[in-house]
Design goal:
26 helices, 6 domains, binds 2-(butylsulfanyl)adenosine, D-amino Acid Aminotransferase, Chain A, domain 1, OB fold (Dihydrolipoamide Acetyltransferase, E2P), Helix Hairpins, globular
Length: 716
C-alpha cells in the first residue's frame, strides 16, 4: 500500500498519524477522519509490524492491549499520598470554608479553580523520559488506601485518552513560560531543547479520574443482562471493576476515559498553581475537563456550582459535585492538611437526586441489639448514580407517618454517600395507591420469639437474648473495619461458622484453628491462614475498639475512645461507679447507666474474662488531663517549627485551654510561627502577648516563659 521504500519511516509516520487521530477522537472529541479511515491506517501499521517485528515499539498504538499481569496486580507505594477531600453540602458550608481559607491564608493570594467532580476513581500515571526526549507511560496505579495502590498498567494502556507516549514538541509546549522554571527543567540549563535531542529532564506523574461514560455503562449492562449476570450498580463501580479485571482485552472492549487534574514532579505539585497545571496537562495531550474556571469569590463559585448542576443531566458521564481548589501553590502550602485532606480544596456535593418507584414488599431485619428495622424492597430505579432497590423505613411509626402500603409509589432521594431515603408516598392520579397495609410483626422474623416495644421507645426489639440474628449481627459488628478490623470475616463465613457451631460468641473466634476453618465451604488453605492471622492481629486492637466491639449501648467510636483514654484499662472501667463514669468528658447519665448495666451482667463479665484469658489487649494509653491552661484562649498562626497545628491544638486543649480562629480582645496568647500573617499584626495592635513554640511548650510544662510580656492578656 505504501509507496515509501523505507518500512521503518512509514511505520513511524503511521504511528504519528494514528496518535494524532486518537488525540482528536478520544481527547478532544473532534475527529477529522472517519472510523473506517482510522482502521485502514491501523491495519497498515499492524501489517508492517507483522512483516518486520523489529519495528514494533512499546509505545506504538498497536500495543495498547498487551499481556495480562502474571501474578495479579502488584502493590506499589505512591510518590506522595493520594488524599481525599472534605465535603461541603450547602452554600453556608462553602462560605465557612472560604472564610477559613482566607483567614489562614492571611495576606497570601486566594483565587480558586473550580472543576467538575467526576464520579469515578482516581489514578496515578507515571511517565519516564526517554533518551530521545519523549515521555513514555511507565505505570498506572490505583489510589488503593491512599499510600499504596495497585499497578494496573496493563489495563490503563487500553484507555485511549491516556497517551502512551508524549512527543518532545508537546513537552516543550507544556513547559510553563516562566524564566528558569520551566515544567521540564533540565539538569543542564545551557543546552537548547530546539537542537534536537532534549537533555534528560525529570520524570513526572499525572493524576486524575477514570470514568466509565454512560453510553459505555449502558452497553455493559445490556451485555451482562444478555449473559444472565446481575447489572453493575453504577458507572463508578463498573469503572473500578473494569480497571481491576485481569484480562486487558476485556478492559479494551469497554470504553473508559481518563481526565487529568494534577501534575507532579518529584512528588511535588506544580509550583505555578492549579490553573497552570490544567493548561500544561492540556498541552501534554491529556484530556482535561473543559468545564473549569478560575474564580475569585464565593458568589462566583456558587454560580459555577449552579451551572454545573444544570449541566449534569446532559453530560455523557456522571458527576457528583464540584471540586474547588486554591489556585496558588504557595497558598496551598500555607494552608496545609487536616488528617487525610488538604485545607486548600473542597468537594461541593450536589444535593440529593430523587426518583419515583414502587414498593414491592417490606422485609424486617434484626440488628445486633435485637432492634427490628423495616426495609422497603423497591422496583429497581437508577438515582444519584446508583441502582436502588431497597431503602430503610426506620420503624413502624415512620411507615405510619408516610402512610405507606405495599404497592405504594414513593419518592426516594439519594445524595452523595447518603443511604437512599423514602421521602414521601405519591398520591397523584397517575400512580395507583398502595393496596395492602403492612402489619408489623409481633414475633422476631429470625427466632420467632415475641417482640417488645419499651415504654417511650419507637423501636420493637426481639426479646430472646439468644436470638441467632442478634449473635450473627454482633459478630459482624465486632469484625468491622472500624471495630476489631478482622478482614475476611464476612457474612457468608460468619453464617457458616454459626451454622456449624464452630462459634457461639466472639470469644470463640480466638479459639478457631486451621482444620476447623478448612471444613467450611469455599475456604482454601490460603484464605484460612490469612483469616487466622487477621484474628490473631485483632487481639492488639486495644481497649477503645474492644469496647466498641462489645456492643455496649450508646457506646460508639468516640465514646469508646473517651472511656478508654480516661480509665486506661478494662479492669478500671468495669470497677467504675456511676459518678466515676459521668466524670468522663461527654459521658452523661444514659451512657454511664448503660456501661454499669453491661458490667453488672454475669454473661458479659464472663465474656470479658474469657477474652482477657485469650490474650486480647485490655488497655489503652491513659490520657493525663490537666487544667493549667483553663480559662485561657489561644490563637495559632504561621508554621511552628516542630508541632503541626493540630498537635499544638491538642496539647493546649488537653491542658484545659481553648483554641480560637481569630484574634480579639478575648485572646490570651497568640502562638506565632514562621510566615505568620495578619493575626500577628492584630495581636501586636491589641497588645496580646506572642509566644513562639518553645514558649508554648514551657507554658504547657508549667514553667512560665521568661519574657515579661508573657503574662496572659486579660480582657478588661
Ligand atoms: S482533586 C487531594 N479533582 O473526588 C486529592 N478530585 O472526594 C483530591 N475527583 O479522590 C483530588 N473529580 O477521586 C480532584 N476534579 C477533581 C475530581 C476529583 C473527581 C474525586 C477523586 C478524589 C475524590 C475526593
Amino acid at each position: 500500500m505504501s509507496t515509501l521504500p523505507d518500512p521503518g519511516a512509514r511505520a513511524a509516520e503511521l504511528r504519528d498519524q494514528l496518535r494524532h487521530h486518537e488525540h482528536l477522537y478520544y481527547v478532544l472529541d473532534a475527529p477529522e477522519i472517519t472510523d473506517a479511515a482510522y482502521d485502514l491506517l491501523m491495519r497498515e501499521l499492524k501489517a508492517l509490524e507483522a512483516e518486520h517485528p523489529g519495528l514494533v515499539t512499546p509505545d506504538s498504538p498497536t500495543q495498547r492491549v498487551g499481556g495480562r499481569p502474571a501474578e495479579g496486580f502488584q502493590k506499589v507505594a505512591h510518590s506522595r499520598p493520594m488524599l481525599s477531600l472534605e465535603n461541603a453540602y450547602s452554600a453556608d458550608e462553602l462560605r465557612a470554608w472560604d472564610t477559613r481559607v482566607r483567614e489562614l491564608a492571611g495576606d497570601m493570594p486566594v483565587r480558586y479553580v473550580a472543576e467538575l467532580k467526576l464520579d469515578g476513581l482516581s489514578l496515578a500515571l507515571h511517565y519516564d523520559l526517554t533518551p530521545d526526549g519523549r515521555a513514555n507511560l511507565l505505570r498506572g496505579i490505583t489510589r488503593g488506601d491512599g499510600s499504596t495502590g495497585e499497578d494496573v498498567t496493563s489495563n490503563v494502556r487500553t484507555i485511549k485518552s491516556v497517551p502512551l507516549t508524549i512527543s518532545p514538541e508537546k513537552l516543550t509546549k507544556a513547559a510553563l513560560l516562566e524564566p528558569q522554571q520551566t515544567l521540564f527543567e533540565s539538569s543542564n540549563p545551557q543546552s537548547d531543547p530546539a537542537e534536537g535531542v532534549r537533555p534528560a529532564g525529570q520524570a513526572f506523574e499525572v493524576r486524575g479520574e477514570v470514568v466509565m461514560p454512560l453510553a459505555s455503562f449502558q452497553r455493559l449492562n445490556l451485555d451482562r443482562e444478555r449473559d444472565g449476570l446481575a447489572p453493575a450498580v453504577n458507572p463508578r463501580n463498573a469503572a473500578a471493576g473494569t480497571l481491576r479485571t485481569l484480562d486487558p482485552t476485556i478492559v479494551a472492549q469497554r470504553r473508559l476515559d481518563f481526565y487529568a487534574y494534577f501534575l507532579l514532579q518529584n512528588g511535588d505539585y506544580l509550583a505555578q498553581g492549579q490553573q497552570a497545571t490544567l493548561d500544561a496537562l492540556t498541552a501534554l495531550g491529556f484530556r482535561v475537563n473543559s468545564h473549569r474556571k478560575t474564580l475569585a469569590t464565593v458568589d462566583e463559585l456558587l454560580t459555577f456550582i449552579a451551572q454545573a448542576e444544570s449541566l449534569r443531566e446532559s453530560l455523557p458521564y456522571e458527576i457528583d459535585g464540584v471540586v474547588i481548589k486554591v489556585d496558588s501553590h504557595p497558598t496551598q502550602l500555607r494552608l496545609g492538611y487536616t488528617g487525610r485532606a488538604p485545607r486548600s480544596a473542597i468537594a461541593y456535593k450536589f444535593t440529593a437526586q430523587a426518583a419515583l418507584t414502587q414498593v414491592q414488599s417490606i422485609t424486617v431485619q434484626v440488628g445486633r441489639t435485637g432492634k427490628l428495622t423495616p426495609v422497603a424492597e423497591l422496583a429497581p430505579v437508577f438515582v444519584g448514580g446508583t441502582t436502588v432497590s431497597r431503602a430503610t423505613l426506620h420503624n413502624a411509626d415512620e411507615i405510619a407517618r408516610l402512610g405507606l402500603k405495599l404497592g405504594s409509589w414513593v419518592k426516594i432521594e439519594r445524595g452523595g454517600d447518603v443511604i437512599p431515603k423514602v421521602v414521601e408516598v405519591i398520591t397523584d392520579p397517575d400512580h395507583p395507591a398502595g393496596h395492602t397495609d403492612f402489619l408489623f410483626p409481633t414475633t422476631c422474623p429470625d427466632c420467632h420469639e415475641p417482640v417488645h416495644r419499651a415504654e417511650g421507645e419507637v423501636d420493637f426489639r426481639c426479646t430472646n437474648i439468644d436470638c441467632p440474628a442478634k449473635l450473627r449481627e454482633s459478630i459482624l459488628h465486632f469484625s468491622r473495619r472500624e471495630v476489631m478490623n478482622i478482614e475476611g470475616l464476612g457474612e457468608a463465613i460468619v453464617a457458616q461458622l454459626l451454622d456449624t457451631q464452630l462459634i457461639a460468641s466472639v470469644a470463640d473466634l480466638y479459639a478457631l484453628n486451621l482444620e476447623q476453618l478448612l471444613t467450611l465451604e469455599r475456604m482454601g488453605e490460603k484464605s484460612a491462614t490469612t483469616l487466622l492471622s487477621q484474628i490473631e492481629a485483632s487481639k492488639q486492637a486495644g481497649l477503645a475498639r474492644l469496647l466498641m466491639g462489645l456492643g455496649i449501648r450508646f457506646v460508639g467510636e468516640r465514646t469508646a475512645q473517651l472511656l478508654a483514654a480516661d480509665f486506661g484499662s478494662m479492669e478500671a472501667l468495669a470497677a467504675a461507679t456511676q459518678p466515676d463514669l459521668e466524670r468522663v468528658e461527654e459521658v452523661g447519665p444514659k451512657v454511664a447507666a448503660a456501661a454499669l448495666e453491661f458490667f453488672a451482667n454475669d454473661r458479659n463479665r464472663a465474656l470479658v474474662a474469657r477474652l482477657t484469658e485469650l490474650g486480647l489487649k485490655m488497655t489503652a494509653e491513659k490520657r493525663i488531663r490537666t487544667d493549667q491552661l483553663a480559662g485561657l484562649t489561644f490563637v495559632l498562626t504561621g508554621t511552628l517549627p516542630t508541632l503541626s497545628r493540630d498537635q499544638a491544638k491538642e496539647k493546649i486543649e488537653s491542658a484545659g485551654g481553648k483554641v480560637s480562629g481569630s484574634v480579639s480582645k478575648k485572646t490570651s496568647y497568640v502562638v506565632a510561627g514562621e510566615e505568620a500573617g495578619s493575626k500577628l499584626t492584630k495581636a501586636q495592635e491589641l497588645n496580646i502577648p506572642i509566644l513562639d513554640e518553645p514558649a508554648l511548650l514551657a507554658l504547657l510544662d508549667g514553667t512560665p516563659p521568661d519574657i515579661s510580656s508573657a503574662e496572659p492578656h486579660r480582657p478588661e
